[in-house]
Amino acid sequence: MSESTGATGEGTRAVRAGLPEPVKNEPTLPGPVFAAHFHLPGDVAGPYTYGRDENPTWTLLERAVGELEAPGRDDVQTLVFASGMAAISSVLFSQLRAGDTVVMPDDGYQALPLVHEQLRAYGIQVRTAPTGQDAQLAVLEGARLLWLETPSNPGLDVCDIRRLVDTAHARGALVAVDNTLATPLGQRPLELGADFSVASGTKQLTGHGDVLLGYVSARDAEAMTAVRRWRKLVGAIPGPMEAWLAHRSIATLQLRVERQSANALAVAEALRDQPEELGVRYPGLPDDPSYEIASRQMRRFGCVVSFTLPTRARAERFLQGLRLVDDATSFGGVRSTAERRGRWGGDAVPEGFVRFSAGAEDTEDLVADVLRALRESAD
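^ thats the sequence. predicted structure below, dont judge the formating
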């Protein structure tokens, strides 16, 4: 049973999420349970029987994530996975059958085109449309599942979750929202009516770049039974150590999100105010095309900023010139990272497009480093 404090503050919730009831002489957060099997005399009974099905360390983490995704609700289930893609796949392949139609963003995470290929190979029709301006509504008719990614990665467009959910449900479709970039402290898709909230815990949720993890949260027990079955069949389970590290890291989520969001906004403002036109995107900028919708459904706007330098060579000089920012993929870590996103070949972005992930450095230091590298790269 998870410890209940009655507190509503997000920082307090993050610090105490998923903790068991205190027991004298026991640690506040029990260490990872490494077990492939458990004592099981007689008939099969109890929650822990075999390591591919359940693990006490997963259980505590799942409770923690559930408390963040749906505070105060007892009808939400959460399952953790070995990666964000494992979580995404579990929803798609457990809910869709041959002959079904799924609507997905055409500007989302760069691995999604590979998912589209596999779905089509299984006889599932895939329709795509951009995230911005709720364009997926135009191809929704007859779909079994609507997949949203908002803000989109890496373009940072935003769609109106509530509007899309209401329309999809009226047409008999389920809705899943990839909440990776926002985190539960940025937005709560289940509160906006979505059937599934899915995310990569590799990113800002755990925030240290040392864990691969994913999760699915949902209210519908039958739907989650299918997701659980998929996890069992595929074996896409996290290791106990990864699950424990993730739970430990969640305690600082609110602190990290606050600093990283402030840093992202400061970097975005500094880049926007340059005389050079950089095409800066950040949902928290009042003049950003996504701001109006984002400000209605998001409580924080995330740690990712995107902008475009004129050429590939200029972007590479900029990245090489940064001193406080690592040239690395992924995002959400306490150390700022940036990359020229076009180097992967999976995103429809210009050669000079940069995805910047603000870390937890001092704001003034980070902005100064970015502006210095920007100036020097222009020489």
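The radius of gyration is 21 Å.
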